Amino acid sequence: MPRLSLDDPVTAITGINTAYGGKLERVGVKTVRDLLLYFPRKHQDFANVTPIAWIRPGMRTTVRARVYQIRRQLTPRKHMQIARATVSDDSGQLNVVWFNQPYIASYLHEGDQIFLAGEVDLNGGLVMKNPEYEKVSNDPNHAARIVPVYPETRGLTSRWLRPKIRPLLWLADQLDEVLPAEILARRGFTPRAAAVKQVHFPESMEALERARGRFEFEEIFLNQLANQLAKRARKAHPAHAIPFDEQVARAFVAALPFKLTNAQRKAAWQLFQDMMKAEPMNRLLEGDVGSGKTVVAAMAMHHVGKAGFQSMLLAPTEILARQHADVIESLLRPFGVAVGLLLGSTPTAARRSLLASVASGDVHVLVGTHALIEEDVKFKDLGFAVVDEQHRFGVHQRLSVRQSELWPHFLSMTATPIPRTLGLTLFGDLDISILNEMPPGRPPVTTRLVPPDERTAAYNFIREQVLAGRQVFVICPLIQESDKLGVRSATQEAEKLQGEVFPDLAPRIALLHGRMKSAEKEDVMARFQRGEIAILVSTSVVEVGIDIPNATVMMIEGADRFGLAQLHQFRGRIGRGPHESICLLLTDVDDPETMRRLTAVVTHRSGFDLAEIDLQNRGMGDLHGVQQHGNEFKMANLLDAGLISDAQAEAVRLLDRDPTLAGEPALRRQLSAYRRVFALD
Fold this sequence. Notes:
Elements: H1 18-26, H2 32-36, E1 42-45, E2 60-74, E3 81-89, E4 92-99, H3 104-107, E5 113-122, E6 126-129, E7 132-135, E8 146-149, H4 158-165, H5 181-187, H6 192-200, H7 205-235, H8 246-255, H9 262-275, E9 282-287, H10 293-306, E10 310-314, H11 318-332, E11 339-342, H12 348-360, E12 365-368, E13 382-388, H13 395-400, E14 409-414, H14 420-426, E15 431-435, E16 446-450, H15 455-467, E17 471-476, H16 484-501, E18 509-512, H17 518-530, E19 535-539, E20 551-556, H18 564-571, E21 582-586, H19 592-603, H20 607-618, H21 641-657, H22 665-678
Parallel strand pairs: 4-6, 9-14, 9-15, 10-12, 10-13, 11-12, 13-14, 16-21, 17-19, 17-20, 18-19, 20-21
Antiparallel strand pairs: 1-8, 2-3, 2-5, 3-4, 5-6, 5-7
Helix pairs in contact: 6-7, 7-21, 7-22, 8-10, 9-10, 10-11, 18-20
């Protein structure tokens, strides 16, 4: 292999052409350094070589044997090409089969000494199916050792990656050590270069665990260090100190037509305490759909208005912005707090008049969409900014509401349930308030799993609900935002419901999907809100989180395609009125794992519990709304509260001693790249 450097493109590596370079780039690997740090997702312990006579069904092991016979075959039923072999050692014989890999019969020959690594099955005798295979050598890649298994994609397999990565391991010695020497010594961590080598091709399971432990800590430590730097920079920025006025707060609560939950009271008090400081608040308000986040925000806006300052609320869609404006105005109008609504569709003359009122301070609260953060929107004295479902906005959009001499106090609101440990990791520069209670009097939503033979009964129930004056959501799966299947399946479902299932209700059945123009989507949602549409068929990419108190049924097709947290989000769209509501989960998949996952939605009502189960089962990348953070955590268990606490303590200790990290140049460089990914500056 030619002399390489860490910053060379991967195509400089022998055996990696431009086609494979493109495949690697799609998984974030552009340079030699990136490939060296492309860590395995797991390992198979095939280090022990077992005589054939000793192996038993269910055992995962390596055998060393001679190829007695090998041939290519075409199976008559499925027309599948296979490679079938018989191998032997001094103790016995073993049958081997590789499905859809007929080329192996050309690579291996009778008489070859080979390693085979995999699980032994019993199928008319002992057999290994699709084992790893390798001709015997003193230093194998695929068997007779602890074998790395990498994240794979089309055209990139672990078998292809292993011989490309292993010759690069000498370059690990050129990697900077990013952990401070005092942390390495205090915690007894393996140095970075040695840990990289052991993570790829470990000498033992113990060495692997030590290396993994080091990188688990490193990932969380970098995250916590970036969060602490962001938090300290924010605290150094001036903001209006808004005094707490007990009489103002009591008057607001007394005027509410309902009683606040204890969680709402606690969250509001946390906001008041933050805003009393002359440094900008940065808080995340989490709560299930319907838990009362908007009321907490309105209570803070009331306080801010009475103190002589202005507030704004940024929502992702016009429908949601209108809904927020209606709720906030109804709560604040009795106190003389003026609320304005600014949308992209606001007429020019009305917009000009509204902006003049905002600039003069006559409008105390401005609610709107992206239109709020355009350059010509000038506040007289903005003291409080709220962003609803902040993950739907770009970082620069979120930061633009803060770009003034005095930063406003900042509140993010989300209905996406996020486990607390994950929140501390992803949003560590925010303080977190959680609304874990639902307002009294709201009937719980019943959830049922509907097998295929009960679909007709489900349709009959929907008809009964519509004839009783209720409304229905039907959600169709969308695997990826670019996947046309989601749009097509929703279209076909709408046509089926209109033409076959509910022909008498056809005029009141409508379709909603992400490829419709914004004006079309807004029109459909507005008609659904007014009750003109009885059954709304939608893909999952469309924001349907508006308040429809009359909707009592949520029917989710292909429920197995969604994460648990996302299913819970859909379920939260109903049960917002006085009527009993039901969520129907439909799937044609009946394997035990799918049934176990969907049963969790039936038995758990807490979105936070489901989000934690989701994270354990599927990984962070599937949590609805936080996918963009997934690439930086390759090793760490984001439910490990102890690890997060330890990493945060070390980050605080280091910054207290060295606030600018002047004594840690390698850490500064690593952190600079990390902060660009997470846009934490």
